[in-house]
Amino acid sequence: MNYRVEYAPPVEDFLRRLPPEPKHALRRGIKALATLQGDIKPLEGRLAGYFRLRVMTYRVIFATRVQQGEGRVQCLYEGPRATVYEAFTAVLAVRIAGQMKE
What we know:
Helix content: 40-55%
Order of helices and strands: EHHEEEEH
Distance between the termini: 36 Å
Shape: globular
Radius of gyration: 14 Å
Strand content: 25-35%
Largest sheet: 5 strands, mixed
Number of helices: 3
């Protein structure tokens, strides 16, 4: 099954700011997610249900879903390995808190 790859705005912003070499490597890695290829691992703990793609020293956090026979990969957050997991956990906490208020 091929998946349609979608980028969240934080991922696009991060890619725009990168130097050419890592930018091209990350774009190739993300493009390969259409067939779920690459250095992919499921995340655990508070981030269970999400996956990570490793490209160089960067990580892309993504989710997959299949609806009505169509697969989608949603690239949600990206950054250096040292900070990406904590930053994404904080983003999720803010989203959850916002949903609880509604």
